[in-house]
Structure formats: structure tokens, C-alpha cells
Design brief:
This protein has 346 residues and is α/β, with parallel strands linked by helices. It is built from 10 helices and 8 strands. A 3-stranded mixed beta sheet has the order 1-2-3. It is rod-shaped and about 115 Å long. The protein starts with a helix and ends with a helix.
């Protein structure tokens, strides 16, 4: 619940009502001049004291409101300022009436009422904007520029903000490289939040939605893939029509498992790029194989995947040699392992 703008709306509405009532009363006094009474010296001194008191309250309350970023307190501060201005005009009207110009008193009252109503009306408008989550174009431009400047962000599809009392809440849709890992994308999101909070400390919460950025690029085998330059409804529909990555990975492992020379499959990564499925597969071969033989096996694996799996447009095969690590440290570090080297020297 937005208590701050609701409170500010109530205070500013009272200002508008008070100013309007004062204007109406002044009009009635002007229409019936016989009812206008000439004020005394006491009224003049009271108006002078009211000016000093309300002006002091204005500065104290405004400073407190700016420090706490409370629109309700700031609205109350301007209420004190309007009272001080009212006292100034009232003092002029009282002085004019005392020297023989009784018409100045109701006219001054009407002017004061207009000033109060104007101040209240401006604050009512600001409160309504906060309650309806109106967007500030300058704030949006600053947010977008800050997000796009973060390394790893390809572009920012949209950004929105809304006020929650003295603070702001931001929603952003960030596009990152299409083959970026989930953990790397999460790191980019964390950097976006940090950058925004540095530039705008009043942002206390930031929700970031991440999508892949599609552009015209080359796949792992230098096969040109023409895709969309932005994430939109067409890309979403393309994703919905494709099989889940778990099913594709299972089929890839099944197909690769039929190749006799593949000792085992290390990794299978499925990428959805521009409505197409691309597979990155790491296979382990015998370390005694020649490079030419290993390359031939990888080509065979790639051809089998692309032939037997119709929805896979591109298969990129990575070769890994079988290591001979003894495993004393519990990690598979290969022949270059320091522990294995020491054991061999013995």
C-alpha cells in the first residue's frame, strides 16, 4: 500500500480546499463591503508573528522531509510555507485597511487563497502520478543508460520504475548473449543491480528479466545463422514449438553412444538460437589416437546427430582426450597433475 502518496494527497487536497474556501469568502466580502470590518493593531502584529513562525516551521519540516524522502512531510512543509505567504498578504491587507483602504483586506485574502490552491493543486498532481505509477522519462533514460553500460548486456528491451514512498522499485528486461550460461547471466544481472544502486541510491528493489539477444552470427562450424535482432513474440513462439532440452540431450547421448570409438560423453549443451536447436557435445576419445583419426570420429558423430535428429540444425563436437590421472587428490587433473609427477619421479 502506498501510504506516502496517499498521505500527501490528503494534505494537498486540504490545501486546495482551504485555498478555495478563502477565495470564496473574499468574493463574498467584496460583494458586501458594508460587512467588512477594519482590523486593529493586534491583528497586524499577529500576522507578523505568524509569518516568522510558519517560515521557521517550513524550513525545519522541509529539511526533515528531504532527509527521509517523505512526500507527506514535504507536503506538510509547503503547507507551512503557504501559511507564511498567507500571513504576508494578510499583513499587507490589514495595513491597507488600517490606513483607509478596507477593500485591500478581502482582496489580499483572495490572493492568498489562490496561492494556497495553486500549491496544493501541484502537490495533488504529483501524488496522483505516484499512485498511478506514472513514468518519469528522465529517470527511464538514466536507468536504461546505466543498464546498457554494464559489461555483458547486449541491450535493454524495456525498463519501468515506480515509487514506493521515498524509494523506487525498478523492473527491467535485459538481453544478454544468446550462448551465455545461466550463472554468467546471473552475474550480469547482479552487476546491473549494483550499477543502478550506485547511480540511484533511492532504488531499493530491482527485478530483472533476462532473455537471449539474437543477432546474425556464425555457429561453431562457421555456418551462417540469420536470426532476429531482438527478443519478441516470434522468438517466444519459436521456443514453445521446440522440444525440451532434456529430451534433446537424451537423444544426443543415445546417438553418440552408437559410435564405437567414443569412450564416453563428457557434456551435452543445448542452445535455442533464433528458433533453431544447436548442440555442443564434448566426447572423450582414446589418447593414443592420432589427431587425424580423432577429427574423423568427431565428423562422424556430428553427421550422425544432424542426420538422425531432425530438429537439431547444428552439432558442434569438442574432443577431449582420456587422461591418466591417478586420482590421489580426488580430482581429475590429467597427466600434468603435480602429485602424479612426483609419484612418477619416485
Amino acid at each position: 500500500v502506498k501510504y506516502e502518496p496517499i498521505g500527501a494527497l490528503c494534505v494537498s487536497s486540504m490545501l486546495v480546499a482551504a485555498g478555495g474556501g478563502l477565495v470564496w469568502h473574499s468574493i463574498l466580502l467584496v460583494q458586501s463591503m458594508e460587512a467588512v470590518a477594519v482590523p486593529g493593531v493586534t491583528a497586524l502584529w499577529i500576522s507578523v508573528a505568524a509569518i516568522g513562525l510558519n517560515e521557521a516551521l517550513f524550513h525545519i519540516t522541509l529539511k526533515a522531509g528531504q532527509k527521509s524522502r517523505s512526500k507527506t512531510v514535504i507536503a506538510n512543509a509547503w503547507h507551512h510555507r503557504s501559511d507564511a505567504m498567507s500571513s504576508v498578504v494578510a499583513m499587507a491587507g490589514i495595513g491597507g485597511a488600517m490606513v483607509g483602504f478596507p477593500m485591500l483586506d478581502p482582496l489580499a485574502g483572495g490572493a492568498v487563497g489562490l496561492m494556497i490552491a495553486k500549491t496544493g493543486g501541484e502537490m495533488v498532481w504529483e501524488s496522483v502520478r505516484d499512485l498511478t505509477d506514472s513514468q518519469d522519462e528522465e529517470v527511464l533514460q538514466k536507468l536504461e543508460a546505466t543498464i546498457v553500460a554494464v559489461p555483458g548486456v547486449a541491450s535493454c528491451k524495456y525498463v519501468r520504475h515506480r515509487r514506493m514512498g521515498p524509494y523506487q522499485v525498478v523492473d527491467a528486461h535485459v538481453l544478454v548473449h544468446q550462448e551465455l550460461s545461466v550463472s554468467a547471466a546471473s552475474h550480469v544481472v547482479a552487476k546491473c543491480r549494483a550499477a543502478v544502486r550506485i547511480e540511484m541510491p533511492d532504488v531499493t528493489e530491482m527485478m530483472v528479466h533476462v532473455s537471449p539477444s539474437f543477432d546474425t552470427r556464425f555457429s561453431g562450424r562457421n555456418k551462417a545463422v540469420s536470426v532476429h535482432s531482438s527478443y519478441g513474440k516470434k522468438a517466444e513462439l519459436d521456443f514453445e514449438e521446440l522440444r525440451p532440452h532434456g529430451e534433446i540431450e537424451k537423444d544426443v547421448r543415445r546417438v553418440v553412444g552408437t559410435v564405437r570409438d567414443v569412450k564416453w560423453i563428457e557434456h551435452v549443451h543445448v542452445h535455442y538460437i533464433g528458433g533453431e536447436v544447436q548442440v555442443r557435445c564434448s566426447i572423450v576419445l582414446d589418447d593414443a589416437l592420432l589427431i587425424r583419426q580423432a577429427n574423423l570420429i568427431a565428423r562422424t558423430v556430428r553427421q550422425k546427430i544432424e542426420k538422425e535428429l531432425a530438429d537439431v540444425s547444428t552439432a558442434d563436437i569438442h574432443l577431449e582426450l582420456e587422461d591418466n590421472c591417478w586420482g590421489q587428490c580426488g580430482q581429475s587433473l590429467g597427466p600434468a597433475c603435480a602429485i602424479a609427477g612426483k609419484m612418477q619421479k619416485r
